[in-house]
Amino acid sequence: MSDVTKADIDSDIDPVSSALAQRLRAAAPHLLPGGADLDTSAGPLLKHLVLAARGSRRDEDLWLLIVAITGRFPEAEHVRGARAALRHSTEADATLLLLSELADLARHSENLRRPMVVIEEATVVDVDFCARHDHNTGIQRVVRQTMSRWADAYAPTFVAWTDFGHAMREIGPYERKRVVDWGTKIEGEPEGKDELAALPIVVPLRSNVLVSEVPRTELCLAQTAISEFSGNTVHLIGYDAIPIVSADTVPHHETERFVRYLNLVKHATRVLAISDAVAEEFSGFAMSVTAQGLSGPKVVSVPLPVDIPDARPASDDVAPAGRLVLCVGSHEPRKNHHAVLFAAELLWNEGLQFSLRFVGGGSIWYTRIFDKQVKRLQKAGRDVQVLRGVSDEEMLALYREATFSVFPSLQEGFGLPVAESLALNTPVITTSYGSTGEIARDGGCLTVDPRDDESIVTAMRELLTNQERVQELQREIAHRPRRSWDAYAHDLASHVVGGRA
Amino acid sequence: MNVSQRFDVLAGALLGADEVDGRTRTGLVHAVGAELRQGDASHAWLALAVLNAEWPVRDEVVQLRRRLRLEDPSEVVRELLAQARRRLVAGLARPSRSVRIIQGVVVDVHHTAHTRLATGIQRVARKTAEQWSRTHDVAMAGWTKDDMALRVLTSEERENAISGSKPDAPKPRREEVLVPWRAHYVLPELAIEDPRTARIAAMAEFSGNQTSLIGFDCVPITTAETVGAGMGAAFSRNLVAAAHFDRIAAISVAAATEYRGWRSMLGAAGLAGPEIEDVFLPIEAGDVTDAEMVAAREELLTGDLPLLLCVGSHEPRKNHLAVLNAAEILWRKGREFSLVFVGGNAWGSEGFQHRLGVLKRRGRPVRGITAITDALLWSAYRLAQATVFPSWNEGFGLPVAESIASGTPVVTSNFGSMHEIGSLGGARFVSPRDEEELAAVLDEVLFDEAENRRLREAAAAAPRTSWGDYANALWDYFGGADR
Fold it and tell me: In chain A, N or C terminus with fewer CB closer than 10 Å?
């Protein structure tokens, strides 16, 4: 963290104090219901605001005032500290006591020069990562598919956080395109450092705030305080609790990040889970926090759609060249790819003929072992390949070409490869429980116990030797109920937009 | 113990002593291979644990089973033996390690065998070990230096596990690895070392042993904002192991609630999780001599001022800042009393220390004591007009139980284990989030004589239970050796 040093402030006193005055004026109408004299200078105005927050004793007033003074969204301990400071103050020393309590917070603030806007009774969507980065897998695909639809239908306010996570801010025009115009080529240049630094802090009041991603660790405490103190209603999209439930399959830092996020979860109003299985996970967590006197969030299942990805296949007329088995997903232990490889080897040994393609990247510590196994099988003349860096278009073509795909993951929040395979009429062998089991229930899948190799072998043998069964599954796919991204975006909105708890 | 000797141990366990006698080595390898191929995951787990003198992790068991299916099992066994020998030659494994298969009840007291600490988790593990070692035939075990396998404790380590009298007991130079087989593994302490939890997880999932543990709380995931870095991840891996256990004895209804909440998260991974029951910790006070009371009076009291006592380390979860703020409200109101904190510093206690300094400079009768003897602690409970414990989350809340057992009123949080214990009598409840409510209730408890007397009577009437009662209830729930 780079602090704003005293020297910076001394050499540049005007931007800092004029920004402070602007923020105080922006807060004034909300803290001084009787009307504020906005022409007064910052000093007297500050005093009025402090006395108003001191008198009202409402947390949301104090929270707003702290944002205005420091340019930072406070954490719970800051709000409590400020409350304790004001408790024993007199009218004469209240401002001094509050400022001295907030001195550390302000000294390290990255936003002393930043103006602020207050919005009331709005729908605010936190799209921090999607606005600031080009990366597009899992969570980002859900956010971009959904928010491109929300942008027109509900005109929500999209926000990101300032670099160190000190406050919510407006997003720039290029950042907005990253969120709502993904998939088309974005015109223009990303915002530069100066442009980003000028974007105002956004302070929601009495609003619905949707946290659409899993936030950066450094802003989780401030994000939680929004829920606890600001009077806004905070909704989350719940993706999974894999970093806890399958902690042995992820690196430590992912679990560390996730447990910080759980602080936000336990104080949120509502979690909108992407599958029933995920809803069960978050409900379980909500149940465990009753032991600490909290009611926990209300958890609702809003399942993701089984819809065709936006990309178009490279070629429409793919001739099936023998039997192709496709296994899509990043190479990590949780995806259980070694079990697929084992099943394939056993079936090749039985004399079955088919090709096997794995599609997906992964970290080197895992892929090295996996690739070694694949090489051994290639040497033995087996038709197996690992494809990395495959484009969306090539991927769609592979799905269409495949006899079936196989996805026996140990745990998934949703199981996008299952949904994609079905959307492209390719039957799937997948895990019988959890979110993949839910998708499978609507047809087109054979389900297996991913911890039982034999059940994977049996299912693959069945689809490799029984053409009728494959066709039957294809017919099932045709009769699956359709659920589109439009429907998902609409369902999600029905829980968030306008519906304050 | 060399690899051939380990193989003999394995063959004996898998085939039975009668089957081993009179066979050639080749014949034995063949028979063990055939047995492993026919057998289930528990046989693969046993083979790896015994031959490597090291408990396997999940992948090793799964991979061995795949190889047994794809390849000639005798060949697989020969390769396992060759691999075990290579590890010895390469210095990856210790040649001095011997292996013993063990049945009956094995109690894993790895930390407890080496700590002097008698608070929280260690206290529960130690008291349990002490009681059980008197009444039942149980084996105490620790872990090897590399955290790769359970091992036999030295007699000094065993003594420390039970009494805490030999915290510096040397670790054995020759380690004897324990492999529970058709046995009952009990974990009464918190295991958070990665190699250890990964191996306990595989043992619980595959070995077929009965598995039981004491569940203290899920604070590292449910209240992570009050816990230092690293604990959330380490504890989550402890839970991954716990997911494969047969049963968990939670130390309170609140702890059971946390564990049950976690268990219902497991469905997403296709796991049912363990049976969970609460086995409530005892409410028991320590003894104090008259001389100790006199010394404590000298040490702890400020003139004639009534004493408010707050016991516990200064980590944020204990909410000691709120205690300071509530006390300041009362002092400003003109109430005269002294406030003593008993407990060490911990992660995140800077805010508390700062505020404590401010109040001291203001001349408030407040102090913090970090190092304290048992005698001083139990005297403090008796000397206090009241105690205060407004924690955000506790698996048990020992200071609430200790205060009540000492007959002293306690002001504590209105939920969770603190509410459970306090409901036995002698407690007033507050929201730990409301400092003004805390101040108001403390005011009554400290200065309303009738209220203080009423609470003292209720505390005196609260039921007492002993560590013996607890250990018996735990043994019954776990099912001892009978499961």
Answer: N
